[in-house]
Specification:
This protein has one domain: Beta-galactosidase, Chain A, domain 5, CATH 2.70.98. The protein has 2 helices and 21 strands. Strand 1 and strand 2 form a beta hairpin. The protein has an 8-stranded antiparallel beta sheet with strand order 8-9-10-11-21-17-16-14, with helices on one face. 8% of the residues lie in helices and 41% in strands. By secondary structure, it is mostly beta strands.
Length: 322
């Protein structure tokens, strides 16, 4: 059987199997945020409350509006927030870094500079149907040092949808739509960080016990700055298989697709606790956001324990864009 035939059958099987699970996804609101629960297990939380910072750390690093924790199907926590090397890292999130507003630089990513921040605003809608659960929220990108006063620079509608997948895995759709009402718009400047979707991994992972593989066959050493349709990040956990991970996929309608990656080199932060990856659509090219026009980016994650092969990743991506 040819490779193309095998791939077609694998894609077809994945599409058929997505809805074929008896466990439904439900939503539960808490004082911290909204939990997505499969069966009796919380698999991820979207945090609506402002996360406090450790004692002695600048209050500017507090924020809301991010995913943490995200766990593997067996309950292994795969995300991390406020690591001591980068207190502005928040699990799974996607603020823009170098933005130009009326000739001024505004940074929504590096919270310690106090120039900008992204906050949860309100829940737009919640839905549970067909075994899946969906949350739609508004996030506000704030220009904290605007000449007149603090102001709203970018509004973001974030859609998070969770659904069981095949082989005991689960799927997370992460769709972000941004727009501005500023008369002159905003320029999202080209830079190696910003926007898209970023993932700061568990403190358990380092170069000795984790790995990266992209759709173009690039590993941890080679991947930074390259373009990809998908990227597998996996590492050692307490799961019975010994490892867990996430497949992150970029939709083919996204800006700059195949999308540029930011992948921390193996020697980042002394080579310890340093797994960070991001789809970064403005890495090589600036993006002009015109007033009152909506721009969307679509991502999908497959969260797993054990192994997930390159062939499976390609099939999941084809099912995603189909």
């Amino acid at each position: 059987m040819s490779f193309k035939r095998k791939l077609f059958l694998l894609v077809f099987a994945i599409i058929l199997n997505f809805p074929a699970f008896s466990q439904n996804v439900s939503l539960k609101e808490t004082s911290n945020g909204v939990d997505f629960v499969i069966g009796n297990q919380r698999v991820l939380t979207y945090q609506t409350a402002t996360a406090d910072v450790p004692e002695g750390i600048k209050a500017a690093f507090k924020k809301s509006g991010f995913i943490h924790p995200l766990t593997s199907p067996s309950g292994q926590v795969l995300t991390r927030i406020q690591p001591p090397d980068h207190y502005h890292h928040y699990g799974i999130w996607g603020p823009w870094t170098r933005a130009t507003i009326n000739g001024r630089e505004v940074d929504f990513w590096n919270l310690g500079d106090g120039k900008g921040r992204v906050d949860f605003s309100h829940i737009i809608s919640k839905k549970q149907a067909g075994g899946a659960a969906e949350l739609n929220v508004r996030q506000n990108h704030l220009d904290l040092k605007a000449p007149e006063a603090e102001r709203l620079a970018i509004s973001e509608d974030l859609r998070i949808k969770v659904k069981p997948a095949d082989k005991g895995r689960y799927m997370v759709d992460y769709t972000t739509t941004i727009f501005t009402s500023l008369e002159k718009g905003i320029l999202l400047d080209d830079y190696r960080y910003g926007g898209g979707i970023g993932f700061r991994a568990t403190e358990m992972w380092d170069p000795s016990n984790s790995s990266v593989l992209t759709s173009e066959g690039k590993n941890r050493v080679e991947a930074d700055g390259t373009n990809a349709k998908w990227i597998i990040v996996k590492g050692k956990t307490a799961d019975k298989s010994g490892q867990s991970g996430i497949l992150l996929m970029s939709h083919n309608t996204n800006k700059s697709h195949p999308e540029p990656l930011r992948v921390w080199p193996e020697d980042s932060n002394g080579g310890k606790e340093n797994v960070f990856i991001e789809f970064c659509p403005i890495r090589h090219e600036s993006w002009e956001i015109l007033p009152n026009k909506r721009y969307s980016l679509k991502y999908r994650m497959i969260v797993f324990d054990g192994e997930l092969s390159a062939g499976e990743a390609e099939a999941y991506w084809r099912a995603f864009v189909k």
